[in-house]
Amino acid sequence: MTDVLMVEDLAVRFRGESGVVDAVEGVSFRLREGETLAIVGESSSGKSVTALALMRLLGGPPNCVVRGRATFMRQDGEALALLSLPETRMASVRGRDVGMIFQEPMTSLNPVHRIGAQIVEGLLAHERLSPRAAEKRAVALLDHVGIPEPALRARAFPHQLSGGMRQRAMIAMALACRPRVLIADEPTTALDVTIQAQILELIRALQHETGMSVIFITHNLGVVAEVADRVLVMYAGQVVEDAPVDVLLHLPQMPYSAGLIGSVPRLDDVRRRGGRLAAIPGNVPDPNTRPAGCTFHPRCAHARPDPCETARPALEYVSDGHTVRCARWREITV
Amino acid sequence: MSAVAPSAADLPPPVLAAPSAARRPALRRFMRHRLAMFGLVAIIVLVVACALGPYLSPYGPLTIDLRHRFQPPFEGRHWLGSDQLGRDLLVRLLLAGRISLTVGFAAMGLSTAVGVVIGLVAGFYGGWVGTALMRFVDAVLSFPAIFLLLTLAALVSPGVLTITLIVALTAWMEVARVVEGQVRSLRERDFAIAAEAIGVSDAHLMLRELLPNIMAPIVVAATLNVARAILLESYASYLGYGIQPPTPSWGNMLNNAQEYLTSAPWLAIFPGAVITLAVTGFNFLGDGLRDALDPRLDVHR
Questions:
Q1: Secondary structure (3-state) at B242
Q2: Minimal Cα distance from B205: which residue of A?
Q3: Which of helix, strand or coil describes residue A333?
Q4: Residue B283 in contact with residue B275, Cβ under 8 Å?
Q5: What's the Cα-to-Cα distance from B100 to each of A27, A104, B93, B244, B248, rounded to whole Å?
Q6: Contact in structure between A115 and A161 (CB atoms under 8 Å)
Q7: Is B194 in contact with A156 (Cβ distance < 8 A)?
Q8: Which of A107, A121, A139 sits opposite B190 (nearest CB)?
């Protein structure tokens, strides 16, 4: 399978009133055609910033500096350097080559426009279509993402639809021009569980049908197990483990990944441990004051002063398609 | 995606009462606002009277009748009396109203357009563009409007067009500020980022996505701007820099009246009263719209 997106050493630095914040440091990954890559991590680990940086939606310098390389392979074989494209070219990439859906379907649709009109906008921005044809396409898209009575819903305003419907409409918007890559930033977090399952199923079906690649940002490992082919675990702005989904879920090498998996609440575990939920102690460090050495060591049960507190570990090769950022991964079993 | 589904698309457009349903509470709040209703009625009466009144009167605004000079109001043939040349005050007031209201509305339109454009650009792009534009707004705001108005008026030959331009030039800053603030906060909202993520242009983002969301404060500011424009035009004309006689405007009628303040006070009272009526009418209307469109300020509940 060919790569559609190659990201090398992506770094994002924000300059604010409180000083400099390195939100993302040296993130690299490859996204293959038709693959679903899950990016997981706690809040403020840099998952969303990575996605927004790739879409160039972060605003520019001096307040925000993005470094590194991101190469996107177009369907016709043209390679685009996403981070250095002129803004006008970038606008033609957004929506057409790379689509994005967001966490909050409640706020991601413009309250003053009808659903259909918002989809039409994306279509007209990228394709030569008559408004009438675009409208027909919008209704067909709404039908396709499973919205009943699509012609009626196309004329509805966002506040007249339920959360699940709105997220479906968002997906129709993002996929209107059949992008090669869909970035889904916690698309199911704001929805209740049954709707969540429907939306995941919808994304999977659409992916199967169009062969698009998906970057799925989430903190929900249950969702990861369901949708992902490969998982990128992020912690404090860095990739700490990159592995195929089965390997990561069963044989994680980084203590943080193991902690995340262990933190998924399970009914039998809860009963056995007397009602206590497992958790990783502590919090993600404040980006201003990240600890020296391994950024995870203050929370890690396996930390030793010698390798862990002295040097930032590098990503090490474990097996094909599996890398881990832990100085002691050979010695410990997590 | 899938092939176009003609059966679905060819359905007749369904009837949805969406916008009216969404705005009905605002309309209800507005209708309950007594001062705003008073303002609205006052404005409608003034506009209709100024538009139609002169056709119904037997007198022309410039018809001189030296046998009936300084006729007091409410007696004799001139309802509101006549001036030093025997001209009918009512007809002159109504024709002056045409000029004053036209200047008011035109200056409002112009100043709102300028303010919206500057505010949109400043709020959307931010950075040094935004800073430069907004500091320019602050600089213009720091001049007392009336001096700015008189300085500009002294430099050009007075007339309806020039006075409109000048009044507009001294009134766009408020709108720019309102729009800039709103755009800056809306710019960060999810729907704006989502729209950007589907690849629409900057102009489209500003005009189609952001602008419709800030129409309420713009309408309020524009309404208040009409009142301000009428007042500024009256100042300028009163001081002799605005509309020039014999063309009547409410301001220059006051100017003309000051010589006869003791002998024929009605010449000053009526123009003054109409200016007050128009200005308070627009101010009440603006306040009412603000209360109706922004439920957070609803103090009547």
A1: coil
A2: A121
A3: coil
A4: no
A5: 65, 50, 10, 12, 9
A6: yes
A7: no
A8: A107
> At CA A277, angle to CA A275 and CA A281, rounded to 5?
135
Residue A275, burial from CB neighbour count under 10 angstroms (0-12, 13-18, 19+) = exposed
- Token output for B245: 């006689």
Nearest chain B Cα distance for residue A193, angstroms: 23
Counting every residue written for chain A, the total comes to 334
Check A112 against B16: CB less than 8 A apart. no
Give B131's contacts (C-beta < 8 A, 6+ positions apart). Answer: none
SS3 letters for A15-70? Answer: EECCEEEEEEEEEEEEEECCCEEEEECCCCCCHHHHHHHHCCCCCCCCCEEEEEEE
Q: Identify whether the C-beta of residue B180 lies closer than 8 Å to the C-beta of residue B267.
A: no
pTM: 0.77
Nearest to A32 by CA among A6, A57, A55, A54: A6
B124 token code pair: 């959307």
CA nearest to A88 within chain B: B201
Tracing tokens 């603030």 back to the chain, one arrives at: B181
Q: What is the Cα A208 distance to its own chain's centre?
A: 19
B22 touches chain A (CB under 8 A): yes
Pairing mode, if any, of strands A79-81 and A64-73? antiparallel
Task: Show pLDDT as tens, one digit a residue, over chain B (301 residues).
Answer: 444 344 433 434 444 444 444 456 778 888 888 888 998 999 999 999 888 877 777 777 677 777 777 777 777 776 777 777 777 788 888 888 888 999 999 999 999 999 999 999 999 988 889 999 999 999 988 888 788 888 888 888 878 888 898 889 888 998 999 999 999 989 888 888 888 888 888 888 898 889 988 888 898 889 888 988 888 888 888 888 888 877 888 888 888 888 888 888 888 888 889 999 999 999 999 888 888 876 554 444 3
Residue of A nearest to B4 (CA): A140
Name every residue whose Cβ is closer than 8 Å to that of residue A279 and which is 6 or more positions away in sequence. Answer: A263
Three-state DSSP at B14 gives: coil
Nearest to A156 among B8, B9, B18 (CB): B18
* Contact assessment for residue A206 and residue A212, using Cβ atoms and an 8 Å cutoff: yes
Q: Between β-strands A322-324 and A238-244, what pairing exists: parallel, antiparallel or unpaired?
A: antiparallel
How many angstroms separate the CA atoms of B237 and B252, rounded? Answer: 5
Q: Which of A281, A258, A277 is nearest to A268 (CA)?
A: A277
